[in-house]
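Summary for the steering committee. One of the milestones for this cycle was to obtain a three-dimensional model of the protein with nicotinamide-adenine-dinucleotide bound, which we needed before selecting residues for the alanine scan. The sequence and ligand used are listed below.
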Amino acid sequence: MRVLVTGGTGFIGSETVIKLIENKYEVVIVDNLSNSKEAVLDRIETITGVRPTFYKVDCCDYEAFRGVFEKEKFEAVIHFAGLKAVGESVVKPIEYYANNLGSTSNLLLLMKEFGVKSIVFSSSATVYGIPKRVPLFEDDPVLSATNPYGETKVMIERILEDACAADKNLNAALLRYFNPIGAHPSGLLGEDPNGIPNNLMPYITQVAIGKRDHLRIWGNTYPTPDGTGVRDYIHVVDLAEGHVATLKKLVTNPGLVVYNLGTGKGTSVLEMVNAFEKATGVKIPYTIEEPRPGDVAANYANCDKAAKELGWKAKYDIFDACRDAYNFQQKNPNGI
Ligand code: NAD
Ligand code: UD1
C-alpha cells in the first residue's frame, strides 16, 4: 500500500514513517520544512534502510500539491502537516487558520479528484476544551477549543464529518492525541522545538543537559493528588503504531471513526520529574510558579475504543519515554 504522509519529516510524522516502512508500506512525504529538517530523511534511511520519496511542497500551494498527486498514486493519506504552537496561534490566528484549514481543504479536493478514499487526521485532545470530567471518552462533547490552534482541529474534524456524510466511500479517522513525548530509541529522531520549549518534556530534557537552568512548574494548587497538573503522556513510538493500526481499520471501509490515542493514565508534573530522575539518574531542579493561563488541572484519555476496534494499546511507560527523550537530547543538544 502506498501512503502519502503530509508533515512526514516532523516529530510524530517521522516516527510514523518508520513504522510504516517497517510494516512494508511505501511512503511518499510532502512537507514544506517550516518546522522540520531535510536531514530527518537521512535518519529515517539510517534506521530503516529505506529513503522515502520526498517532496518539499507546501500543502497550501494547490498547484504544487496537485503536481505530487499527478506524479504519485496513493491508497491512503496520513495528514500531519499543520502549525501546532498554542501560544503562537493566539498571536497569529490568521496564519494558523490559513495554514491548517487551507492545507486540509487542498488535500481533500485533491483526494476527491484523484480518487483517494482514506485519510487519517492528526487531531488533538484539545478538541475537548476544558473537560468537565476525566477520563475523556470519544463521545464527550466537542464544542470549542480554548485557542485558535485548537479551533483549527475542531473545524477540520467537522469538515471531515461533513465530507464523509456526503461521500459514503470516504473513510476518515480522527485521531485525538493526548501528550506525545519520547523519541526513537536510537536517539536519531525526536522532538526538536525551536527556541524555548513550551511543553514539559523538551523543557525537562534541556534542563537535564544544562541548556536551561531549572524547570518552572506552573502551579501546585490544582485539585490533583500532588497539586500539579495531570496529563496523559504517550510515547511517540506507540503513537506511530496507532497510525498503522488505523490504516488497517480504514481498509475495512468504516466511514468516519474517532479514537483517543493516549495511555489512559494520568501523570502529574512532579511524578514526571521523579520518573525522569529515576530513568536517567539526572536531577531536575525546579521552582513552583503561578499557574499558566489556559491550563487545565487534569486531562487524560479513556482508550478502550482504540483497544477494542484497532487492537492497539500503548506499550511504553513514562520511564521509557524519559530515557528515550533524554538519549535524543544528549545526542542532539542543538537539535537535528
Ligand atoms: P511538527 O511541527 O513536528 O510536524 C508538522 C510538520 O508539518 C512539520 O514538519 C512542518 O514542517 C509541516 N508543515 C506545516 N505546515 C505545512 C504545510 N502547509 N505544508 C507542508 N508541510 C507543513 O508537529 P508534530 O508534533 O509532529 O505534530 C504533527 C501533527 O499532530 C500536527 O497536526 C499537530 O497539530 C498534531 N498534534 C500534535 C501534538 C503534539 O503534542 N506534538 C498533539 C496533538 C496533535
Ligand atoms: C499543551 C497545549 C495543548 C497541546 C499539548 C500537546 C497549552 C495551553 N496546551 O498542553 O493544546 O495539545 O500541549 O502538545 O499550551 N508544565 C510545567 N512547566 C513547563 C511546561 C509545562 O509545569 O515548563 C506543565 C503544564 O502546566 C502541564 C504539564 O506540564 O500541567 C504539561 O504541559 P504541556 O507539555 O505544555 O502540555 P499541555 O498543557 O497538556
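Key point for the committee: The longest strand covers residues 118-124.
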